[in-house]
């Protein structure tokens, strides 16, 4: 699933390509907005809000999209072959005189009034990569339920916006506790919040995410995706288990030697 840094890059690409340009064509391929026509409107810009994208148009309209597991926005020059997926996966097309933005497999796509953006993203906690970042408020929200496992608390976008499953696992490894440790038992939780901010900032403009400082394939992450492979720090086999409420479980990776705290049964 795209995380906050990936969505930040998507917003920057869309903004650079479309902002200040007038749409010559729009096509929203979702039943509720299939008849909406944005052509003739200037694109004000695109911003990220956590894992959400907000593309604003003159006249006070915003196209709200969310990538979730495998959604994507791709940019093409006029006449360029589209490689983002088959035609039936396209959910949105925004075209200017020289560029085309195509949204593939977008599970969330809605046209809203710009003053009503809070209806779509107002529930989010402080955005790790946004201008509203407030570490004290993020910490307050995380600690509001001290019995909740830290892994679940980090993924809850109402606490702080932008962390996905990769960063959840990596942050817990770097903190040396398992993702099942109750949030109230996390040592110096303010350091966890600061580290989350530092990691996303360091990776937001990178093509390949790294939490280890290494750029070589297979060495960029400490534990995520390393099932049964040796921990880069101690050599113990990395383990994986599901974590989260029923129906929302995520594969969670951890090193049983480097990380202390409870583990799944």
Description of the molecule:
With 265 residues, this protein is of the alpha+beta class. The protein folds into two domains: 4-121, MutM-like, N-terminal (N-terminal domain of MutM-like DNA repair proteins); 135-254, Helicase, Ruva Protein, domain 3. The chain has helices at residues 4-18, 117-121, 135-142, 150-155, 165-175, 189-203, and strands at residues 25-28, 43-49, 52-57, 61-66, 72-77, 90-95, 99-104, 108-113, 239-243, 250-254. The strands form three sheets. It has a four-stranded antiparallel sheet with strand order 1-6-7-5, with helices on one face. The chain has a four-stranded antiparallel sheet with strand order 2-3-4-8. Strands 9-10 form a two-stranded antiparallel ribbon. β2 (43-49) and β3 (52-57) form a beta hairpin. α3 (135-142) packs across α6 and α5 crosses α6 (189-203). The mean pLDDT is 96.
Characteristic key phrases:
alpha+beta; N-terminal domain of MutM-like DNA repair proteins; Helicase, Ruva Protein, domain 3; 2 domains; 4-stranded antiparallel sheet; 10 strands; 23% helix
Strand tally, please? 10
Strand content: 15-25%
The helix fraction, in percent, is 10-25%
Number of domains: 2
Radius of gyration: 20 Å
Strand order of the largest sheet: 1-6-7-5
Class from helix and strand fractions: alpha+beta
How would you state the average pLDDT, rounded?
A: 96
Any idea of the CATH topology of the largest domain?
Helicase, Ruva Protein, domain 3
Q: What is the overall silhouette? A: elongated
Query: Could you give the distance between the termini?
Result: 26 Å
What's the tally of helices?
6
Question: Which class of the largest domain in CATH terms?
Answer: Mainly Alpha
Largest sheet: 4 strands, antiparallel
């Amino acid at each position: 699933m795209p995380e906050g840094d990936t969505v930040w890059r998507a917003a920057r690409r869309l903004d650079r390509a479309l902002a200040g340009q007038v749409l010559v064509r729009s096509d929203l391929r979702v039943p509720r907005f299939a008849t909406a026509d944005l052509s003739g409107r200037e694109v004000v810009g695109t911003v990220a809000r956590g894992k959400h994208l907000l593309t604003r148009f003159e006249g006070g309209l915003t196209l709200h999209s969310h990538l979730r597991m495998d959604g994507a926005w791709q940019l093409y020059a006029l006449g360029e072959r589209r490689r983002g997926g088959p035609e039936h996966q396209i959910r949105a097309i925004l075209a200017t005189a020289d560029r085309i933005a195509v949204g593939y497999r977008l599970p969330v796509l809605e046209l809203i009034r710009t003053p009503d953006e809070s209806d779509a993203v107002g529930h989010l906690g402080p955005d790790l990569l946004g201008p509203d970042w407030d570490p004290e408020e993020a910490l307050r929200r995380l600690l509001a339920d001290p019995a909740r496992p830290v892994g679940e608390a980090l993924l809850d976008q109402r606490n702080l916006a932008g962390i996905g499953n990769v960063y959840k696992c990596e942050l817990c490894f770097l903190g040396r506790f398992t993702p099942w440790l109750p949030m109230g038992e996390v040592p110096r939780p303010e350091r966890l919040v600061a580290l989350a901010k530092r990691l996303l900032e360091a990776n937001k403009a990178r093509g390949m995410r790294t939490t280890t400082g290494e750029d070589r394939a297979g060495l960029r992450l400490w534990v995520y995706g390393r099932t049964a492979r040796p921990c880069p720090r101690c050599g113990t086999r990395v383990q994986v288990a599901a974590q989260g409420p029923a129906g929302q479980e995520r594969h969670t990776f951890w090193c049983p030697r480097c990380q202390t705290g409870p583990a799944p049964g």
